[in-house]
Amino acid sequence: MAVVEAPPVPVANADEDAPRARTWTRGLGVAVPVALLALVAGACFLAPLVLPVPSPTGGNILEAGLPTGSPGHLLGTDPNGNDILSRILYGGQTSLIVAVTVNLLGLAVGGTLGALSGYVGGAADTAIMRLLDVLIAFPSLVLTLAVAQSLGPSLTNTILALGFFSVPAFARISRAATLSLREQPFMAAARLCGTKGRRVLLRHIAPNIAPQLTTFGMLGMGVVIVIEGALSFLGLGIPAPAPSWGNMISQGQASLSATPMLVLWPSLILFVTVLAFNLLGESLRTRWSVR
Prior knowledge:
The chain is mainly alpha-helical. The protein is built from 10 helices and no strands.
């Protein structure tokens, strides 16, 4: 009697499953922080437009100190009668605008200077980098405090003070990436073809250094939000009564033992936003370094 052999049972190939798992993990590492940032940005910028959110200033003093869950005030009110949720949302607008504007300023000025310095080389490179080294040598936070103090507390002055000190960091990242590209075969081919320097910078260098600058910018977003919060906490950033997460924490510390929620809510949203930016920057760095 003939013996019929059972067909072989397929065995999962670990070598084939590993790349899929890594790809899924990298995708999740980008999707989660992007979803968190979209949620925060959507709440801060869209919620006041579509929901009956009270004004963040000019509250009713008769409603001062309402607890969390009060009718019409989901997170309660502060000692001035202002709605805490409203101040968190409008304060988030301020913090995100500062972070994005400062990093765009640093990217535009510092990224351009670094690319020019790395591409041109020679005396121009030396002069630009020595100037930036002088700026980096000073404690940036101390100088930012001094500049903010001299200019006075306002949204524009906060952006200018933070943007000024973001330029050297972007320039160094841009220059290092440009130097690594300058000797690549496609760059030599572009020079041999007589391509003008401006076209080389725009068509060849800028697209190739964009990943490094974008990753650094995502990490810089969290740093700028924290520094802006510190400036506002010290009274040198966004002036009261205009809300920002930093000055909300500063104002809430006076009654921290009695009403800790005044500090807890803005601190929590500040933590989540900075964490999301850091996770996104690290995920992008890992993804692009693999490529």
